[in-house]
Amino acid sequence: MYSNEQLIAIHNSKIGFEFEFFAKTDLKEVKESLTRTLNKKIRIEEKAHSDFSPSEDVFKLEPDNSGGSGMIELVTGPLHFTEAKLIMAKTLKWIRENGSTNDRCSIHVNIAFNGSTLGPETNMTNLDIGKFVLNFDEDRVYEEFPNRKNSVYAKSIKFVIPLSGMTEDSSGKTIWKNYMFVNEKYYGVNFTKIPKGYIEFRYLGGADYEKKYNAILRMTEHFIVSLYETLMNPQYTKKDEAELNKILANHKNVINAYKSYKKFKEAYPKIKLMIDLKTADNIIEMYYVKIRDVLFKLITEGGLVEGLVNYDSDVSRLQLKGANLEHCFNVTGIDLVDCDIRGNIIECDLFGCKVNDSSLIKCNLFGYTEVNGSKVEDSYVSRNVTVNNCYVFGDMTVFSGEMIGGIFRKGRATSHAEFKDAEIIEIEKIK
Question: What's the pTM?
Fold first, then answer.
């Protein structure tokens, strides 16, 4: 049960929804039917993420092929909580009767508060992301939507890492300045919307989400109350400090290892360092200060605990072989060889890797790499690379591999490319 203060916060929230779904009729008929059902004006946009911002009176419909050809997104304007509940109920009922959803479909919940009633403290620009992350009960969401727990579209926000290898345990407000929290849109909470005055929650969705009105309503209230409590109680408690210290304990080894190569070897005996494929301690010690920041990021942001790490001094680039990177927050600008990967990979070259439930951006994929259930954006995919049930897109995409299932949204393909049961929306053939 909610307290009176929490109920006041709920009823003074402003809620916007983004419904992704498939319809049985074309976009024009969908617009006319939803206009009658919701009693709102609805605009049809030519492309996804159009510049038009919906209002309380005018919503928008736009194509969103991230879930497959024909997927539609209905975006509402910010609504007072009571009306938002009604709009949600009507829209879900409409989808049940006139459309469908699959595991790529989501319902995003955008939340702001009525500051004139609740006070200036509830302005989203006041939100301390770190405090919210530590206090938010994410398990409640996964209890209602277990299929979203490992979704590449709504990854867990419970990821906190030190910004510096020299970070030490401390107390007080300044502790938060030493840590990095998620700030990218493909997480369960999209904090990049804060400058626009609201927060986007991306956890909810999946096949048949239109049948889960009560669960969606419970989670919307959970999001509202969680935000409100953090905004109204910005001071850091002993509980917050204990939670962060518990997370810090996971980084104790890497903080010590940052200080010297000797301590690194003691802390991570299964990570073997090389410089230009040389293993002599005196050579590695010479370069350790130069490579330790990148190495630190691999351990804290990539989850590295075992593997061969070589620093190629000719090109000033790190190469990693035989690693299991199952929880990558962010791995950027290295070569990955024979690695198992799950997470966010940016501007990396992959050779013979196995990739699952990941987001690959501006990467080059070579040598029998296999990618499953992932988003592949603006990347080069060479021959002998297999892409299974993925979403491939981007103006810079060049595809020469084999694609089985999934969606090729946009890009170029060479004559070597093979497509089996893949849905091709926009493709340019090149020699």
Answer: 0.77
